[in-house]
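Quick one:
INPUT:
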C-alpha cells in the first residue's frame, strides 16, 4: 500500500490528459523480454537491456534552490516538479497528518493568485496538476503545453514565497483532509489494518506516525502552526526544481532566476529528524478487533535498511519474486494451491532513513492466523535455505524494468525519476545507474539479503480480526444457529 497521499480530494475531479507513448519502444522492450523467456536451459544468460541515459543539466541559485533540467523535444509539452525535502516524518509532535494538510494549503493561492490559478494554468488548457505527500518528501507537479512553462514557474515561485494562510482556508482544507481520513481509513474495511502496520512496526522513529494523520490531531492543529511549518520547510534551500520537456534552455534559466531568485533564504537551519530506530530485541504481536473486518488479516514486518543501501535492488527484486503478481511464488502456493489466504503481498518498503520488509495476508474463509503464518513461514524458510531460481529472478527483473522504461517514456516520468535520484537518493547520477545495478543482481544476492534482514531478526506481527472473534463477544443474530423445534 502506498503511503503517498494525493492532494485535492475536492468537489470536482481532476482531468488528466494522457499523452501518447512510443509504441515502437514498448514493442522493442517486450521483444527483448520475450527472447529471454524463450531461451532453453542451455542458452546463454539473458543480456542486460540498455537503458537510455537521461541527459540532465544541473545548476543552483544563490538562495540554495537546486535546478535540474532535461531537454526533450519529442512533443510540445513540459513537466515541472518541485520537490520539497519535507514529509510526514517531519510532522510536529502531536500533529500527525500535518505535512499532508499543508500540501492542501499550497493550492489556496496568495495575494497574487486565486485558489483556481493552478487549474486555470493547467487543466483549462489540457494539462494536469497535482501533488503528493510521502514520508520524506512533498512533491508538486504539472504537465502543460510548452508555451505555458513561464506562468507555471511564476506560480510555483509564488506559493513558495507566500501563501494565503487564513482561518477560512485553514478550516476548509482541514475538513477536506479529515474527510480523506474517513474515506481511506474508516470506510475501508482494511484501512485500519494498513494504518496499524505503520504505527506498530516502528518503536521510536517518526515513520510510526501515518502520513494521513488522525481526526483528533488534525482538530488540534492551529493556524500559527501552519504558518511556522511553511517558513520552516518551504524555502528555496529545501527545494529542488525539475523541468523536463520542450523548452529553450536560455529562457528557462532566465525565468528561474527571475521568479525563484528573488526568494530569500532564511537564516535558520532546517530541522532534520535525528531519531534512530533501535534494533528490535524481541518479537512483538499486536491484535486489533474491528467490526469492519470481513475476514482476518495479518501483517509480518522486519526492519530493513535505507533505500540508499546497496541492498536496495536485491530487496526490491526479492519482494517481486515472492509476491509480484498472480504467478509469484507466494500467490501460487498460498492462494491457488493451499487456498489458505485470499490475497498475499510482500513489499520492500524502503525510505530515506530506514524501511520495512512487509508481508500482508488476508485469510481465506475458515482459515486461521496460525494456518496462514505457518504457510508463509514455510515459503520464507525455503527462500532462506535454497534461494530463488534464475527464471524467477529474470521474470522479476523484466517486470521491474518494463515499468521503469514505460515511466521514462513521459516527460513527467523522467522528471519523477530524476527528482527521486536527487532528493531521495542524494545523487542525481543514480537516475542513470540504478537500473543497471538492478539488472546485475544475482540469485546469490537475493538469498544473501533475505537472510541478512530476516534470519535471526525480530518481527512484529499485526493481527486485524473481525469483532466477532474477540474473546467473550456475542455473535450477531445472523450468525446464531436457529433453535430446533
Amino acid at each position: 500500500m502506498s503511503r503517498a497521499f494525493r492532494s485535492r480530494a475536492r468537489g470536482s475531479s481532476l482531468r488528466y490528459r494522457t499523452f501518447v507513448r512510443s509504441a515502437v519502444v514498448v514493442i522493442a522492450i517486450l521483444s527483448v523480454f520475450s527472447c529471454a523467456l524463450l531461451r532453453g536451459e542451455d542458452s546463454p544468460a539473458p543480456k542486460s537491456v540498455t537503458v537510455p541515459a537521461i541527459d540532465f543539466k544541473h545548476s543552483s541559485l544563490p538562495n540554495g534552490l537546486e535546478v535540474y533540467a532535461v531537454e526533450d523535444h519529442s512533443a510540445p509539452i513540459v513537466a515541472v516538479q518541485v520537490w520539497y525535502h519535507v514529509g510526514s516524518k517531519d510532522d510536529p509532535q502531536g500533529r500527525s497528518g500535518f505535512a499532508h494538510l499543508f500540501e492542501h494549503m499550497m493550492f489556496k493561492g496568495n495575494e497574487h493568485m486565486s485558489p483556481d490559478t493552478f487549474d486555470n494554468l493547467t487543466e483549462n488548457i489540457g494539462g494536469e496538476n497535482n501533488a503528493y505527500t510521502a514520508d520524506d518528501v512533498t512533491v508538486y507537479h504539472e504537465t502543460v503545453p510548452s508555451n505555458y512553462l513561464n506562468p507555471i514557474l511564476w506560480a510555483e515561485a509564488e506559493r513558495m514565497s507566500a501563501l494565503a494562510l487564513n482561518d477560512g482556508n485553514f478550516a476548509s482544507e482541514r475538513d477536506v483532509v479529515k474527510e480523506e481520513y474517513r474515506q481511506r481509513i474508516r470506510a475501508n474495511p482494511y484501512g485500519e489494518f494498513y494504518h496499524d502496520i505503520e504505527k506498530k512496526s516502528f518503536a521510536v522513529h517518526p515513520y510510526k506516525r501515518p502520513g494521513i494523520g488522525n481526526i483528533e490531531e488534525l482538530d488540534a492543529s492551529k493556524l500559527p502552526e501552519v504558518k511556522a511549518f511553511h517558513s520552516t520547510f518551504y524555502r528555496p534551500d529545501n527545494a529542488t526544481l525539475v523541468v523536463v520537456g520542450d523548452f529553450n534552455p536560455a529562457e528557462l534559466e532566465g525565468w528561474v532566476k527571475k521568479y525563484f531568485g528573488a526568494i530569500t533564504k532564511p537564516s535558520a537551519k532546517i530541522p532534520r529528524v535525528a531519531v534512530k530506530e533501535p534494533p528490535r530485541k524481541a518479537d512483538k504481536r499486536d491484535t486489533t478487533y474491528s467490526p469492519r473486518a470481513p475476514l482476518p488479516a495479518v501483517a509480518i514486518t522486519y526492519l530493513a535498511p535505507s533505500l540508499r543501501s546497496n541492498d536496495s535492488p536485491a530487496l526490491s527484486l526479492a519482494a517481486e519474486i515472492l509476491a509480484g503478481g498472480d504467478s509469484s511464488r507466494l500467490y501460487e502456493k498460498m492462494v491457488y494451491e493451499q487456498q489458505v489466504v485470499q490475497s498475499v503481498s510482500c513489499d520492500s518498503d524502503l525510505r530515506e532513513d530506514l524501511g520495512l520488509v512487509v508481508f500482508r495476508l488476508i485469510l481465506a474463509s475458515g482459515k486461521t492466523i496460525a494456518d496462514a503464518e505457518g504457510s508463509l513461514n514455510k515459503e520464507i524458510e525455503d527462500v532462506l535455505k535454497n534461494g530463488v531460481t534464475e527464471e524467477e529472478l529474470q521474470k522479476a527483473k523484466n517486470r521491474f524494468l518494463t515499468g521503469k522504461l514505460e515511466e521514462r517514456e513521459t516527460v513527467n516520468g523522467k522528471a519523477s525519476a530524476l527528482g527521486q535520484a536527487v532528493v531521495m537518493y542524494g545523487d542525481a547520477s543514480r537516475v542513470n545507474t540504478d537500473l543497471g545495478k538492478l539488472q546485475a543482481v544475482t540469485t546469490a544476492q537475493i538469498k544473501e539479503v533475505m537472510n541478512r534482514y530476516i534470519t535471526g531478526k525480530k518481527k512484529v506481527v499485526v493481527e486485524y480480526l473481525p469483532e466477532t472473534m474477540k474473546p467473550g463477544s456475542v455473535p450477531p443474530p445472523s450468525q446464531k444457529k436457529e433453535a430446533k423445534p
